[in-house]
């Protein structure tokens, strides 16, 4: 617990000033976090990011992450993000031939899906910050409340296993407690901030996001169980890897955009 607290304080001291400042430093931070997340996923399948296929996958991720506010730079080269992404997919497929199938079609599929999974979530991290600081903090506090509520309510009253094949410690009671705590955060944001939603709409959106945040957590648990690892990485002592900390956000940030909250 002491290690978790120290890591959390140090990470917050480094992370929060950049979140407040926004702009290019925030974009670069997001690129770094996403790149580490991709490294962690590839490592689970024993694929090195420090290889030709790893570099191609990383570049594909960077294309996905490229924010809308800088789209004019890409447009000057007469290529869209979709065209560049297709080019990297074709290069990865061609690499299976070059390696005489040592890098397989299955590896290509895993690499592409990994880049999309990590890239879409972190892309909307950039877009959410661009929409306003309040939406970033709404997302963060809502997820923290969901996680904390699920943990403490589950520990105190949890009896019914939520999904024991994936995460044996999670309970239905804890999951409901997490949603309730997230709704409290929604009420506070509705009362204390200028978030662009009436209370009833925000409560409904928050309930859906809290549930999908928990699903994002379970998806990461499923990855780790499938590949037989405890944590996605060790960059955050006491917390695991980047994907261990951002698994819920990778799911809720695209949904937050789909709800047109701003």
Automatic annotation (TrEMBL):
Enzyme Commission (EC) number: 2.7.7.41
Protein's cellular compartments: Cell membrane
Single GO MF annotation: phosphatidate cytidylyltransferase activity
Main location: membrane
InterPro entries found in the cross-reference section: PC_trans
Family annotation (Pfam families): CTP_transf_1
PROSITE patterns in UniProt: CDS
Hydrolase in keyword set: no
Family named by the database record: Belongs to the CDS family.
PANTHER family the UniProt entry points to: PHOSPHATIDATE CYTIDYLYLTRANSFERASE (PTHR46382)
Protein name per Swiss-Prot or TrEMBL: Phosphatidate cytidylyltransferase
Lineage, broadest ranks: Bacteria, Bacillati, Bacillota, Bacilli, Bacillales
């Amino acid at each position: 617990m002491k290690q978790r607290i120290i890591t959390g304080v140090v990470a917050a001291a480094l992370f929060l000033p950049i979140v407040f400042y926004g702009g290019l430093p925030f974009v670069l931070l997001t690129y770094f976090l996403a790149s580490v997340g991709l490294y962690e996923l590839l490592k689970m399948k024993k694929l090195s990011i420090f290889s030709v296929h790893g570099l191609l996958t990383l570049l594909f991720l960077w294309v996905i992450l490229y924010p809308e506010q800088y789209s004019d730079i890409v447009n000057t080269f007469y290529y869209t993000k979709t065209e560049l992404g297709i080019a990297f997919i074709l290069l990865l497929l061609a690499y299976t031939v070059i390696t005489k199938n040592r890098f397989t079609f299955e590896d290509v599929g895993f690499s592409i899906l990994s880049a999309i999974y990590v890239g879409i979530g972190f892309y909307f991290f950039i877009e959410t910050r661009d929409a306003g600081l309040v939406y970033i903090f709404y997302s963060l506090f809502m997820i923290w409340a969901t996680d904390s509520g699920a943990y403490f309510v589950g520990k105190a009253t949890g009896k019914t296993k939520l999904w024991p094949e994936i995460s044996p410690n999670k309970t239905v009671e804890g999951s409901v407690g997490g949603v309730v705590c997230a709704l409290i955060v929604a009420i506070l944001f509705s009362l204390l901030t200028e978030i662009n939603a009436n209370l009833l709409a925000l409560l409904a959106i928050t309930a859906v996001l809290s549930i999908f945040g928990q699903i994002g957590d379970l998806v990461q648990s499923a990855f780790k169980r499938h590949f037989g690892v405890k944590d996605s990485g060790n960059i955050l002592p006491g917390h695991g890897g980047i994907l261990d900390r951002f698994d819920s956000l990778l799911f809720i940030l695209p949904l937050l955009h789909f709800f047109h909250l701003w």
